Amino acid sequence: MIFFDQQRMVFHLQGPSYSYVLGVRDGVLLHLYWGKKIPVENPWPLMAFQGDAASFDLAFSRLPLEVPTQERGYFGGRALGIINSQGDDVVSLRYQDCRIFSGKRPLSGLPASYAEREEDARTLEIDMKDQLTGACITLSYTVFRDADVLARSMYILNEGDDPLLLSDVQAAARLPLDDYEIIHLKGAWARERHVKRIPMAQATFTISSRRGASGHENNPFLALVKPHTTEDQGDVYAMTHVYSGSFSASVDVGIDGAPLMMMGLCPDVFRWKLAPGEGFQGPEALLCFAPDGLNGLSHRMHPFIRRHICRGQWRDQPRPILINNWEGTYFDFNADKLVAIAEQGARIGCELFVMDDGWFGKRNDDRSSLGDWVVNEEKLPGGLKALGERITALGMRFGIWVEPEMISPDSDLYRAHPDWCLHVEGRDRTPARNQLILDMSRKDVQDYVIGAICGVLRDGPISYVKWDMNRNMAEGFSPLLPPERRMETQHRYMLGLYRVLEEITSSFPHVLFESCSGGGGRFDCGMLHYMPQTWTSDDTDASERIHIQYGTSLIYPCSAMGAHVSAVPNHQTGRITPFLTRCNVAMGGNFGFELDLTKLTEQELAWAKEAVENVKKYRHTMQQGVYTRLIAPAPGKGRAAWQFQDEKRVIVCVYQDRSFPNAQPWRLRLSGLEEDAVYEDQAHHIRCSGGALMEMGIPMPAPWQDFESWVYCFEKV
Ligand code: DGJ
């Protein structure tokens, strides 16, 4: 709901359990409140600056500006930076107008949240203007009927006579004055999204990516929580970005001690010239308030991402159980070898065979052929069609790997178009994994990629695509742009990429797309808008994966995470974990295998078959149900647990990390069950009330060996 008190100039936005209140005083848009839902009433008497309301001559630093800019002594974090033709960056935004309407407009060229029916969302748009330069902005706020998520974005229009230079475009949100801790997801390649929690200091805290991708190192997600907040209690304020490029997210503590949380384009690698009459659409940020701990945050964000970010035919479909050949064969395969793996996959019930990197050009290692999307007939005689037909004859779907944003210097494409990559004239083109990046800001390059990939998808019975991206930008500039626009390249790249993704995914609606960036280097709501799942990490070690999937689950639903059973010793860590534990960890996401199934023992094949049967039985609960973290995999604790629940059943997964001597039996308390309902796990001979399962817990054996795991499945009787 959105309430507008025109007389007092107050906007009160309400979701099911939060309120977000704005007000206008002397033309200045002020943030008045964000937090637990409160009644709609006149908030002005409660504002501390009430006595000074008539005059804004005092330093703007003391005002809770909704769009902080460089103006009248405001020194805090800026949501909007504009350098004008006079060379200064003063921006005095004053309220002009507003509109409130049902539904939500799409953001031109950018991914964004959406409401399927108009009545499911209400949008407030507020126009503000800087009279001197003619810079106009429209702030957009959408509340959703079924979600505690507020979607925000900013559109900037140059109504003046001179060009403007944008330097900062951020969504800024103020929190009530209090002590907080900051939670963010830190990582690196193969160890993405580990949960980090630090006290908020009287300082500015920033995480960012300048890589041209959201990145492995920092996820575009920040949460501020009250100290002592746990999984199940405490206030959580979170923000995330519906964008996949470089970003910056920060917490700036003002002179009053209250935090300003911001999320937006990374100012280090972003400038945008706005000629008279031109407009710029900033990416969307999602704000979520949860009064009931970190699980409360996940319980709000997971269904939101599933229903208001992900799109397409596969959004609500059970995700196929796949077998991918990457760790099984790497580049060393031919059609017969792949079919042998697929046959074994079909025998244990897999539904999709994915051929990974190495099927095109002369790519027998990672040194060539990116850009040459022509099948290697030596490896695959008869091409994708022949192989696809052999796979589908086994009763499985057929999927392929592509990396369309890249170009190998050793490729026909590069020989024909050496200028098609991002580069800086007169400087070396820095390769990474022997490849360069196509300049996706160029329309001709976008059209080439669309044509090439659509051609491939028409070449065979392909119903799944893994869209990879294996390096970040070094010389991230497009020489085609005039010098004063070069710093626009990274954002133009993203706009180009989004155009390509929109074209390709909408042309092949039956295809399930999974995004990937050296594992989870672009795990964000921007990519999830086009592709409903992401390869979580190149680290398939079961023990490591618990941390990665646990951190990822803070915000992203399990239906967005690819999770595969791989061989031991693990290729990333050398660790040996039991086969069943590898299956039980992979059950925490979109389940698959990534090994040479022809090398499994009979016993392992039997376990694999059983795991596939279980995933088929339970995947509705795991992909669409409520996911709750029960025990965090903190160092020293030695164990982790999570739970999936829907109206019919509860699935509980428990993982032991390292065992230890003299371990004792213990109890695991479940969460969120109906107290009086009866739940039964026949395999473990447990039948009792939800109340008992939550308060007394289920008896857990003393761990006996490293990396044991247990899965319980309770049916509601
Ligand atoms: C990186 C991906 O994350 C892997 O799964 C695999 O597809 C390789 N790229 C292939 O080059």
In words, what does this structure look like?
This protein has 717 residues and is an alpha+beta fold. It folds into 3 domains: 67-308, alpha-galactosidase from lactobacil brevis (Beta-galactosidase, Chain A, domain 5), CATH 2.70.98.60; 322-405 and 449-470 and 509-624, TIM Barrel, CATH 3.20.20; 631-716, Golgi alpha-mannosidase II (Immunoglobulin-like, Sandwich), CATH 2.60.40.1180. The protein is 19% helix and 32% strand. α6 (443-458) packs parallel to α7. It is globular, with a radius of gyration of 26 Å. The mean pLDDT is 96. Bound molecules: (2R,3S,4R,5S)-2-(hydroxymethyl)piperidine-3,4,5-triol.
C-alpha termini separation: 38 Å
Kindly state the mean pLDDT as a whole number?
A: 96
As for the number of domains, it is 3
Oligomeric assembly: single chain
Biggest sheet overview: 10 strands, antiparallel
**CATH fold assignment of the largest domain:** Beta-galactosidase, Chain A, domain 5
Determine the number of helices (DSSP H or I, runs of at least 4 residues): 12
The CATH architecture of the largest domain would be: Distorted Sandwich
Taken as a percent bin, the fraction of beta residues is 25-35%
CATH superfamily of the largest domain: alpha-galactosidase from lactobacil brevis
* Ligands: (2R,3S,4R,5S)-2-(hydroxymethyl)piperidine-3,4,5-triol
- What is the name of the CATH class of the largest domain? Mainly Beta
Which spans of ≥5 residues are poorly predicted at pLDDT below 50?
none
- Supply Rg: 26 Å
The helical percent reads 10-25%
